[in-house]
Design brief:
This protein has about 450 residues and is mainly alpha-helical. About 75% of the residues lie in helices and about 0% in strands. Strands 1-2 form a two-stranded antiparallel sheet. The longest helix is centred in the middle third of the chain and has 32 residues.
């Protein structure tokens, strides 16, 4: 710690000190109670991912329902993700000050209201507003679950718990890909989205009745005294001043966005309209993305938990492999890569989500517990900002390259998806620059 004689004590930047370690006496206990608390919290995150990714399998249906083109369609996903990203720092502050339980309850209410409004909407404006409300509620889930895990589990297990949390989210994506796709076909738009909204009632009751924020936290008294907090501005500045926080944000930005943009919106249109695949085959490939994500989550969780020094090699390998696979697919003659190459591409993109959680582990390692929510919120913004940039760029290019009838050829998709290399290059440069500013020696806690 360094002391400013004219002001309060403030943390030294991480370039001058190693990652923080919990005093042995304060290590969380883990055990059955920890897994119970995490399981309750992660149920909210699973539901949030179902809501978040539901548009990914309904993009063509939404275009027909609201009579909109590619740019307007991308606005749904862009607004939802933009709201999510903008809410990360406020949500982190709320979690630090009021605890994850209350924030999770509020998140469930907002998600359910937004999804119900989306189910009933018949025009573009109300549907767009409903996705914004949904994005606001979604933003409150992941950081809250990570904070519950930080209270309950020893720090050495946090990388694994973060990956398992992401894995639970992948299960939500699987529900979307398999169940919602079939439900849309059989039950229609309103019944499908209204049912997912009503599911929030049960999840709300589960959190309200069963979630304990940490050892010694009573559900009846969720506002137990907390450590004194810095003013909001000072807390944000302190978290941002840590190079580990900024590195975490850029790792999350660069690794997360390719699969995020593909799964949220453009995957199904690319495979069906751009590659001429049937909906069944395209849904199978999106399911492969989810299954691959699950496998990589388990693998990366084990690797990073055992060897924190593997975080940067994992990050750079995933970035490089994703870039190479997209180059092969987009560079294939006439923009029609063979099915085996699409399988390889989508399998590799399954590593994107798990690799992005390495960014949150950097933020956790270099910040004290009292500002962990704020730092995690900053880091968690990264991938969603990258997704917004990608969704917007691809949508604009597709509209610019559309044919006279508004359809998009394989060549249009080829050039539109080349847009990904701009945020990929920027993020990689920032990662290489910031990793040199971290403290040498042992990493992680």
């Amino acid at each position: 710690m360094s002391v400013d004689p004219a002001g309060p004590t403030r943390p030294a930047p991480s370039a001058l000190r190693p990652p923080l370690a919990d005093p042995p006496a304060l290590l969380p206990p883990g055990g059955r109670a920890a897994w119970t608390a995490w399981s309750v919290g992660v149920t909210v995150y699973l539901l949030a991912v179902v809501h978040r990714t539901s548009l990914g399998v309904a993009g063509l249906d939404a275009a027909a329902r609201f009579g909109i083109g590619a740019s307007a369609l991308s606005t749904f996903a862009i607004l939802q993700v933009l709201v999510y990203a903008a809410m990360q720092i406020p949500v982190g502050l709320l979690v630090d000050r009021h605890g994850p339980r209350r924030v999770l309850l509020l998140g469930v209410l907002l998600m359910s209201a937004g999804q119900l409004a989306f189910a009933l909407a018949t025009s573009f404006g109300p549907a767009l507003a409903s996705r914004a409300v949904l994005g606001c509620g979604d933003a409150m889930t992941f950081i809250s679950v990570l904070r519950v895990a930080a209270h309950w589990f020893p720090a050495a297990k946090n990388p694994l718990i973060a990956q398992l949390t992401g894995l639970a989210g992948v299960c939500g994506n699987l529900v979307t890909t398999v169940v919602l796709t079939e439900a849309l076909h059989r039950a229609g738009w309103t019944a499908t989205f209204a049912t997912t909204a009503v599911a929030g009632v049960g999840v709300f009751a589960l959190v309200a009745l069963l979630l304990r924020e940490g050892p010694g936290h009573d559900r009846a008294r969720p506002s137990a005294p907390r450590a004194p907090s810095l003013p909001v501005g000072a807390q944000i500045r302190a978290a941002w001043a840590e190079p580990g926080t900024r590195l975490g944000m850029w790792v999350h930005f660069t690794t997360a966005f390719p699969a995020s943009a593909f799964g949220l919106l453009w995957g199904l249109p690319y495979l069906v309209e751009g590659q001429g695949l049937g909906r069944g085959t395209a849904s199978g490939l999106l399911t492969l993305l989810v299954v691959s994500n699950m496998a990589f989550a388990l693998f990366f969780g084990r690797v990073v938990s055992r060897s924190p020094g593997s975080r940067m090699p994992v990050t750079l390998t995933v970035i490089g492999a994703t870039a190479v696979c997209w180059a092969a697919a987009l560079g294939w003659p006439h923009g029609h890569p063979p099915l085996w190459l699409l399988v390889v591409l989508i399998t590799v993109m399954g590593s994107n989500g798990p690799a992005s959680l390495v960014g949150l582990d950097y933020a956790r390692s270099y910040n004290p517990t009292e500002r962990l929510g704020t730092a995690s919120g900053i880091a968690n913004m990264g991938g969603f900002i990258g997704a917004v940039v990608t969704l917007f760029g691809v949508g604009l290019l597709l509209d610019a390259l559309a044919g006279p009838d508004g359809a998009h050829s394989a060549e249009a998709y080829r050039w539109a998806f080349c847009w990904q290399y701009l945020p990929l290059a920027v993020g990689t440069v920032m990662i290489l620059r910031l990793r040199r500013r971290l403290a040498p020696g042992p990493q992680g806690r």
